[in-house]
Amino acid sequence: MNRREFISTAAVAGAGLLILPSGMRAGENAPSNKLNIALIGVWGRGLAHYDSLAAENVVALCDVNEKRFPDALKKFPNAKTYVDWRKCLDQKGLDAVVCCTADHTHAFVSNWALNRDLHVYQEKPLAISVDEARIVRANWMKKKAKLATQVGMQRHAIPNFNRVRELVRDGAIGDLTAAFAWGDRQIRRPGYPPAEGQPPEGFHYDLWLGPSPDHPYNPSYFSGGAGMNCLSWNMYWDFGAGQIGDMGSHTMDLLWNAVDATLPTSAEAKGEKFNPDVTPVECESHFDHPANDWRGPIRVSWYQGGAMPASPKPYIDLKKIGHGAMFKGTKGHLIADFDSRVLLPFGTDADLTYYKPRAKDATLPAIGHFQKQWLDACKNPSLKTACDFEYSGNMIEQLLLGLVAYRVGKKLEYNGATGKVTNCPEANEFLARKYRAGWTING
Ligand SMILES: NC(=O)c1ccc[n+]([C@@H]2O[C@H](COP(=O)([O-])OP(=O)(O)OC[C@H]3O[C@@H](n4cnc5c(N)ncnc54)[C@H](O)[C@@H]3O)[C@@H](O)[C@H]2O)c1
Predict the structure, then answer these.
(1) pTM reported for the whole predicted model
(2) Considering only 36-50, 304-318, 344-358, 361-375, which range has the smallest mean pLDDT?
(3) FRET partner for 70 with CA separation of 20 to 30 A, picked from 287, 390, 418, 439?
(4) Domain residues of the chain, as ranges?
(5) Considering only CA atoms, which of 163, 157, 46, 183 is closest in space to residue 387?
């Protein structure tokens, strides 16, 4: 039995059930039951993972900014350090990777890690092009029986996500016909900033650019505080997907969790004037989804940067909910933010007698600690994670297809099986992005 099989077996057997060779009990934190983890991107969002990783063996730290290592090494003194994630992923004995780099490297790191049979926790968004989402999802689907994945949409663990799903599934608004999500963050940039200064010593800007086309160094990309610096680069097409990769990932998740959709059959979008450098601030996109086994066809809509769905009642100002979701059914509306919800029955038979709330013991189980859910699944991949690469891959593919519809300004018919737009050849050009020479997503 090799070390990884041993970790899995110990976790499945559970504490106290397996006698280890040393006579030690296989508890969650028994030294022999720890995962060897690489943390890629150790500052910013990376800091938010320190506590949950402290119970495991963090054996590798990777960051393009060498100045981030001394503090990270205080927390994880036994780790080797790397500036190039490609080299880091080849460290012997790794079990799993947590990736907190800039968005334009996410699909690359995830796909390379899957190619090395590593479990992956990928900060959101999983990808910034339709093609990337499809590549990473397909890779994981082949390996899902043995590898655990999670995309960093940790708000999913807020109990309200389960409550919203229960209300929609149990018919509190009748039959679901449409669902809307929105986010009102508005960060405007005119275009890529001009060349300014030199990268500070120890900062490997060329590695930060990674697979994306070359843009000159400018300190404004790196001027934000810890966990907020993504707001300095994620609006540029070559480095992110704007609102979609930012709060859109969290807010669409609130909707996505309740509708059991896969891939849309169409996408259309409109927004402010196209800027070749910067993703749109104000934009709305709409997607048709086929029926599934519990509901009919639905329309899913995403609004950002000031665009908003119509409120069902004049006394409800949806704009007061900065990031929210609304579900429309044949008997009413459900409006939610991340941690609360409002049910709004309408029509002559909307007396709620058709709806039976669940008994307490039939409510959906709490997810618990979101990062720990993934760590547990790494040790026992038969355990499901809430935001695995199938669920999250479908969700981001849909949103990214909306950005393609926005770019071409046409309603797109989409074949989810082939990943091709069937009615607009020029749209297919925008499903993938162009990479710098020397970089491959499949390494
Ligand atoms: N889940 C959440 O709530 C949440 C919150 C904030 C940020 N994020 C996500 O986390 C990611 C990082 O955001 P941030 O604000 O911390 O950004 P950041 O620019 O501060 O980057 C984080 C760290 O990664 C390093 N890094 C960047 N590219 C790298 C690369 N190619 N290889 C190795 N290290 C690299 C940076 O030097 C930095 O130390 C983004 O994708 C963002 O969407 C998620």
Answers:
(1) 0.95
(2) 344-358
(3) 439
(4) 158-187+242-365+391-428
(5) 157
**Separation between Cα atoms, residue 99 and residue 188, nearest integer Å:** 27
Number of C-alpha atoms within 13 angstroms, CB side, residue 193?
A: 16
Residue 27 in this model has a pLDDT that exceeds 50: no
Q: Is the distance from the beta carbon of residue 41 to the nearest atom of ligand 1 less than 6 Å?
A: yes
Rounded to 10 degrees, the C-alpha dihedral 89/92/94/98 comes to: -20
Q: List Cα–Cα distances, 59 to 35, 45, 87, 173, in angstroms.
A: 9, 19, 13, 50
Neighbouring C-alpha atoms within 13 Å toward the C-beta of 238: 18
Between CA 433 and CA 133 the distance in angstroms is 12
Query: Ligand 1 pocket: which of 49, 85, 123, 338 to mutate (most atoms <8 Å of CB)?
Result: 123
**Per-residue confidence (pLDDT) for residue 296, from 0 to 100:** 98
Cα 227 to averaged position of ligand 1 atoms, centre (Å)? 7
Distance from the alpha carbon of residue 115 to the mean position of ligand 1, in angstroms: 22
Q: Which CATH superfamily is domain 158-187+242-365+391-428 in?
A: Dihydrodipicolinate Reductase; domain 2 (3.30.360.10)
Joined tokens for residue 114:
């899957």
CA-based nearest residue to 187, from 257, 274, 281, 284: 281
The predicted model gives 249-270 an average pLDDT of 98
